[in-house]
Write a structure and sequence with these properties.
Blueprint lengths: L3 H16 L15 E9 L5 E8 L10 E7 L6 E8 L14 E5 L2 E10 L13 E9 L20 E8 L5 E7 L5 E5 L6 E7 L13 E5 L2 E8 L3 E7 L7 E7 L10 E5 L2 E11 L10 E10 L20 H4 L4
Antiparallel strand pairs: 1-2, 2-3, 3-4, 5-6, 6-7, 8-9, 9-10, 10-11, 12-13, 13-14, 14-15, 16-17, 17-18
Bound molecules: beta-L-arabinofuranose.
Length: about 325
């Protein structure tokens, strides 16, 4: 029989759970002691969903970040942490700024494409800044590493660039999109061995709408290609085209900004559902960090399309994709 003691314990547990968000899928349960951002989702041959993330140090203030992590799941609620799969310590050409990564599978190998850099940003006297960032690519026989930088150098040194994103088209051609100083809205093809770029940067026709941006993400659905990005670094917006290099038609914002903070996302289809991964800046009262009230956490939502292929607006929710197992095909 339930006694008073059991009721009290149950009451306390439920309240602890509510405080700690343990009935909700958002933020994703990637582990109690890790802060992740910039999730890049991919479904590989084993049928699991993988997200490659950057890793915020507790209380980090200027995005000094050192390694990249990967997590996998079959239901988007229970995640396996595969740990740090690559770090700036393994690079000869950078020692910091392990920012938003992406991954790809081609020629039987897995590729981790990542931004990294050196120096520091002087916010008071920007002219004294020495910060530089470039894009590297590492390869592995497994989606969870170990990854090795076979080039031993960034893909290029100029322009300053970060936030790479790889899209492999149906014919196997890999396209690299990125954010770059004075060269946003460019794309470059990757060579077949994925160890160098091929040809020149192509400045894409964005239909006259080229706001400040970061992390682009390109995907294909049916006949349409989608170029998506955080417009002004904050609100997720998109363009559509019938080719991976445009011309693109601007279609608007599908996720509003929150707390005037950056967002970074990826979009991928999994078991018949389209999923948007992104990060939220959430209050972290449990943290000893006094300098930052909010820190970043990876999250996920469903993404829905209209009949004409346009994207329906997405709201941030607590439940996220917690009912994925019921909704998905091939459960
Ligand atoms: O995580 C570091 C940087 O913050 C990313 O590269 C940007 O996209 C922004 O999310």
């Amino acid at each position: 029989m339930l006694g008073f003691y059991h009721l009290i314990v149950g009451f306390i547990l439920i309240n602890l759970c509510l405080i700690n968000n343990c009935f909700a899928a958002n933020p994703l349960n990637l582990g109690a002691h890790i802060r992740t951002a910039d999730p890049s989702g991919h479904v590989w041959q084993d049928g699991r969903m993988y997200i490659y993330t950057s890793h915020d140090q507790e209380c980090q203030l200027d995005f000094w970040m050192k390694d990249w992590h990967v997590f996998s799941s079959i239901d988007l609620v229970n995640w396996t942490a595969h740990g740090a799969i690559f770090s700036v310590d393994e690079l000869t050409w950078a020692d910091n700024y392990a920012w938003a990564p992406d991954a790809a599978y081609k020629n039987g190998k897995y590729y981790l494409v990542f931004p990294a850099g050196t120096g520091h940003k002087d916010r008071v006297n920007p002219k004294n800044s020495t910060k530089w960032m470039g894009i590297g690519i590492a390869e592995s026989n497994s989606p969870t590493g170990p990854f090795v930088d076979k080039i031993g150098a960034p893909l290029w040194r100029h322009p300053y660039a970060n936030d790479p994103s790889l899209f492999i088209d149906d014919d196997g051609q890999a396209y690299l999109y990125f954010h770059a100083k004075d060269q946003d809205y460019n794309v470059i093809k990757m060579a077949d061995d994925m160890r160098s770029t091929q040809g020149h940067f192509i400045k894409m026709d964005m239909g006259g709408h080229e706001p400040k941006m970061e992390g682009p993400w390109v995907f294909k659905r049916g006949q349409y290609y989608y170029y998506t990005m955080p417009e002004n670094n904050r609100e997720l917006a998109y363009y559509m085209a019938t080719s991976p290099s445009g011309p693109w038609q601007y279609k608007g914002v599908f996720m509003a900004q929150e707390h005037k903070s950056n967002n970074h996302h990826s979009i991928v289809e999994y078991k018949g559902q389209w999923i948007l991964f992104y990060h939220r800046w959430l209050a972290t009262p449990e943290s000893a960090c006094k300098a930052r009230k909010r820190q970043r956490h990876s999250a996920a939502e469903y993404l829905h399309f209209n009949a004409d292929g346009t994207i329906k607006p997405v709201k941030r929710t607590l439940n996220g994709v917690d009912d994925f197992s019921n909704l998905s095909k091939n459960k």
